[in-house]
């Protein structure tokens, strides 16, 4: 049986422009135009993908995993014909529907109804074929009231629901999905995952990028691991995930509890993270300890409302907690800042023993300035905090609660 997709020695090169001298803000460039014009410029070739090859059989569900910057999204854009490869080629033997970013392939001035037909025609479907699926698409997306409203007035969540419904229900032979599902709420994500399982069982092919390892393992029989733009591992999903987790451990903060970021890039604000357990720097914590995470930043522009979000995930990529300081009534100094650190303190850590990985979202008010996924890890050690010495059953509990009161009243 012929492969439905053949990726043959695909490489993608981008040309990065550098200005000579120190970093200049837009204000500096406008007010000192002569200097800006005379500054030295240099170009650098950056290979986002290098010689990637693999085949996909009809009906296979393939997970694509790897750290940020590994080349996952670039590969999907090449597969979706959004951007061409610099070298190599893609042989496709089926229609490809892509869900890479909210609103991709949609026209903001057209209504929801018109965009459904537009996307269907892009996939090569006739109007009668789209008519057959139209009601199912609208029902799944839940956008019936807004069908004749221009898409530009839809929220990002509504756009996402409609985009996924179109991609899933118009029955392409190949469905390509990026991490975009993380935008939706939990109920919608569950609907999408159930639909993808149905798509997979129907014999269609799925390529799926996600940082949620448990979803990758349950949905995809096989996965490929990308590292620095190259194919690092291909095989069954459980083995690929283990290789991925091992690669994250290689970038840990060690016993010092300190990890550096972006030392050579002034445009990225996060430059250091410190992990403190009961006041000491260490990436090893223990159940019930006081955990503090400090994120150091430096920005070229003033932050009126600095925002830090942290997601802590277990070894399978399942989020345990995901919080930011806005959830806690802006409990930060309100004075504008450009440099410093934001500290998040958990009075006592409610995680069981194991390995946990973190995503950092750093921004200003609602705008993300930088997102670092799987950027550091914490190892939690067990400690018996009960007077009996017994521990709660991990099979029944995702988290433990240290201080629970019990009372007995005899009648």
Brief rundown of the structure:
The chain is of the alpha/beta class and 411 residues long. The chain has helices at residues 26-31, 33-38, 72-79, 112-122, 127-141, 156-169, 186-201, 213-219, 237-249; strands at 5-19, 41-56, 61-65, 87-92, 96-99, 174-177, 205-209, 222-227, 230-236, 258-260, 270-277, 280-281, 284-286, 291-303, 306-313, 319-324, 337-346, 354-364, 367-381.
List the helices and strands and how they pair.
Blueprint: E1 5-19, H1 26-31, H2 33-38, E2 41-56, E3 61-65, H3 72-79, E4 87-92, E5 96-99, H4 112-122, H5 127-141, H6 156-169, E6 174-177, H7 186-201, E7 205-209, H8 213-219, E8 222-227, E9 230-236, H9 237-249, E10 258-260, E11 270-277, E12 280-281, E13 284-286, E14 291-303, E15 306-313, E16 319-324, E17 337-346, E18 354-364, E19 367-381
Parallel strand pairs: 3-7, 3-8, 5-6, 6-7, 13-19
Antiparallel strand pairs: 1-2, 1-4, 8-9, 10-11, 11-12, 11-14, 14-17, 15-16, 15-18, 18-19
Helix pairs in contact: 4-5, 4-6, 5-6
């Amino acid at each position: 049986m012929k492969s439905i997709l053949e990726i043959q020695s695909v490489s993608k090169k981008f040309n990065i422009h550098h200005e000579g001298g120190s970093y200049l803000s837009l204000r500096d460039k406008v007010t000192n135009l002569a200097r800006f014009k005379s500054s030295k410029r240099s170009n650098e070739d950056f290979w986002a993908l290098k010689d990637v090859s693999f085949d996909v059989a009809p009906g296979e569900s393939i997970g694509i995993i790897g750290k940020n910057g590994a080349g996952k999204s670039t590969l999907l854009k090449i597969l979706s014909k959004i951007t061409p490869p610099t070298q190599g080629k893609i042989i496709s033997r089926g229609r490809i529907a892509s869900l890479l970013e909210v609103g991709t392939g949609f026209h903001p001035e057209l209504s929801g109804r018109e965009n459904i037909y537009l996307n269907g025609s892009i996939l090569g479907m006739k109007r009668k074929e789209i008519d057959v699926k139209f009601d199912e698409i609208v029902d799944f997306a839940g956008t019936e009231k807004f069908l004749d409203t221009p898409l530009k007035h839809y929220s990002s969540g509504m756009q996402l629901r409609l985009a996924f419904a179109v991609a899933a229900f118009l029955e392409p032979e190949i469905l390509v999905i990026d991490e975009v599902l993380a935008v939706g709420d939990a109920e919608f994500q569950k609907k999408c995952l159930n639909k993808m399982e149905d798509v997979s069982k129907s014999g269609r092919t799925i390529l799926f990028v996600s940082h949620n390892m448990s979803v990758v393992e349950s949905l995809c029989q096989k996965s490929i691991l990308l590292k620095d733009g190259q194919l690092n591992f291909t095989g069954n999903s459980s083995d690929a995930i283990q290789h991925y987790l091992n690669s994250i451990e290689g970038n840990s903060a060690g016993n010092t509890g300190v990890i550096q970021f972006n030392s050579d890039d002034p445009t990225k604000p996060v430059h250091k993270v410190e992990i403190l357990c009961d006041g000491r720097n260490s990436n090893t914590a223990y159940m019930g300890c006081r955990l503090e995470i400090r994120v150091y930043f430096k920005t070229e522009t003033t932050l009126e409302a600095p925002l830090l979000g942290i997601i802590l995930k277990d070894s399978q990529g399942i989020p345990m907690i995901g919080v930011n300081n806005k959830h806690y009534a802006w409990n930060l100094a309100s004075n504008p800042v450009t440099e410093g650190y934001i500290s998040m303190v958990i009075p006592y850590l409610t995680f069981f023993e194991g390995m946990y990985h973190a995503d950092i979202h750093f921004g200003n008010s609602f705008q993300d300035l930088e997102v670092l996924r799987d950027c550091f890890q914490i190892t939690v050690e067990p400690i018996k905090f009960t007077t009996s010495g017994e521990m709660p059953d991990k099979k029944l509990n995702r988290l433990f609660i240290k201080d629970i009161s019990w009372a007995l009243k005899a009648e």
